[in-house]
Design goal:
This protein is α/β, with parallel strands linked by helices and about 230 residues long. The chain contains eight helices and eleven strands. About 35% of the residues lie in helices and about 25% in strands. Strand 5 and strand 6 form a beta hairpin. It starts with a strand and ends with a helix.
């Protein structure tokens, strides 16, 4: 369970969120500029705010009133964004194994192989980041995040460089793995099909505010009608 109380201002933008994400998988849905990425970066500890309280399964990650603000590396949170941000000087193997250096070499190699296979990137094991396409880099970034076995996985439009069929296959694989390992996921998207495909709880954000929180078919009922109307016109 993820408890969020945050009030952040960045230039003229104001994000104010006060809610609880209790579902295993929560989709943060909204148009570009609504505050989805800002919220995820705040949860990861990458955005500073004057007022915030964030707790994950009862463990306090940040509380401005108590001057608690755990560094990103201590939050046990992994994040995958639209820009994979792979280390350019490291191979695919070393990128995926970067966060699990504490393991023995053989254990680390086993985890790297498993996570690359899960992400559909096992054929990229000998590549370097500069030799990857956008979709391949996103797969490697996902494998790197999963390798750390986080308590919370943040996904910010993580499959934007993949075509629809590849994205659907990867999302289905990921859902099964997440359920098996009991990891909570918060995924930001502006694509209603992602939300409906995961049968997740949906947090609808508009202009930095939480407009609705609940089942996808209820929160996105209007969006579904708009999609069906568009299909009917084609």
């Amino acid at each position: 369970m993820l408890e969020i109380m945050a009030d952040a201002r960045r230039g003229g933008f104001h994000l104010h969120i006060d809610c609880i994400f209790a579902a295993e998988w929560t989709i943060v849905f909204g148009p570009s500029g609504a505050g989805k990425s800002t919220l995820l970066r705040l949860l990861a500890g990458l955005v500073a705010t004057n007022t915030q309280r964030i707790a994950l399964d009862g463990r306090l990650l940040a509380d401005s009133s108590r001057r608690v603000n755990l560094r990103p590396g201590r939050r046990r949170i992994a994040m995958v964004s639209q820009q994979p941000a792979l280390f350019p000087h490291l191979s695919v193997v070393d990128n995926v194994g970067y966060g699990i250096a504490r393991l023995s070499r053989s254990e680390r190699g086993q985890v790297v192989e498993q996570m690359l296979a899960l992400a559909g990137a096992e054929n990229l094991i000998s590549r370097r980041p500069q030799d990857l396409s956008g979709g391949e880099a996103q797969r490697v970034a996902l494998a790197r995040a999963l390798a750390t076995q986080p308590c919370l996985l943040l996904l910010d439009e993580p499959f934007s460089a993949l075509d629809g069929a590849a994205s659907d296959i990867l999302l289905e694989r990921l859902q099964r793995w997440i359920a098996l390992h009991e990891i909570q996921v918060v995924m930001a998207t502006h694509d209603a099909t992602d939300a409906l495909a995961t049968h997740a709880e949906v947090a609808l954000i508009r202009d930095g505010q939480l407009a609705a929180l609940g089942p996808a078919d209820r929160v996105l009922a209007g969006e579904c009608e708009r999609i069906l109307a568009r299909i009917g016109r084609t």
